[in-house]
């Protein structure tokens, strides 16, 4: 984690107002798909047992988005929004991104009141410690570029593709 982080950024209110109109369930489905892909198999059995049946809610304050899910014993599954979750984690979009990129420590965000956990504090500590213990790739958008995914999943196909020009070659560099 870096010692310095970018200045806190909050999405403009009109952006949050538009995002708040999106239906919740598809977003929760996308999030749990990513979580299952990235870390569900790495979770220790004792953590899976603690998570079983727990209602977890992630709230992105500035985007006015919510993601609700549970661990069903096999995987994370999306759910309808909870009236009261076992654990609710709140932060702005930038702070969640910094956490995913491992550019910011959750304790620092917590003590600066930029990350809030409500509900079962023991469950919150289990989640935090489990994430800290996992070997997770840093969330790097270039890692998910279609060509990068193809190179990881089917390198023989990726080698058959012609080289693509760089972004700056296509659009020129900005002054």
Automatic annotation (TrEMBL):
Pfam families the record matches? SCP2
Task: Identify the domain of life.
Answer: Bacteria
Q: Does the keyword Transmembrane helix apply?
A: no
Instruction: Give the record's keywords alphabetically.
Output: Ubiquinone biosynthesis
> In what residue span(s) does the SCP2 domain sit?
51-132
Annotated pathway, please? Cofactor biosynthesis; ubiquinone biosynthesis
S-adenosyl-L-methionine as a keyword of this entry, yes or no, is no
Q: Which family does it belong to?
A: Belongs to the UbiT family.
Q: What does this protein do?
A: Required for O(2)-independent ubiquinone (coenzyme Q) biosynthesis. Likely functions as an accessory factor.
Name listed for the protein in its UniProt record: Ubiquinone biosynthesis accessory factor UbiT
This protein's species is Comamonas nitrativorans
């Amino acid at each position: 984690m870096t010692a310095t982080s970018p200045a806190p950024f909050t999405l403009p209110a009109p952006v949050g107002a538009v995002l708040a109109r999106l239906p919740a369930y598809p977003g929760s489905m996308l999030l749990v798909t990513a979580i299952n892909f990235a870390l569900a198999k790495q979770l220790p059995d004792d953590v899976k047992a603690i998570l079983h049946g727990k209602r977890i809610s992630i709230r992105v304050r500035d985007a006015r988005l919510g993601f609700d899910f549970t661990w069903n014993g096999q995987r994370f599954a999306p759910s309808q929004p909870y009236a009261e979750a076992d654990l609710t984690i709140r932060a702005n979009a930038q702070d969640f991104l910094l956490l995913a990129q491992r550019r910011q420590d959750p304790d620092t965000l917590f003590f600066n009141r930029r990350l809030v956990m409500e509900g079962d504090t023991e469950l919150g500590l289990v989640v935090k410690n489990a994430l800290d213990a996992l070997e997770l790739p840093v969330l790097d958008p270039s890692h998910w570029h279609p060509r990068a995914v193809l190179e990881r999943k089917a390198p023989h196909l990726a080698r058959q593709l012609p080289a693509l020009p760089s972004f700056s070659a296509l659009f020129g560099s900005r002054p």
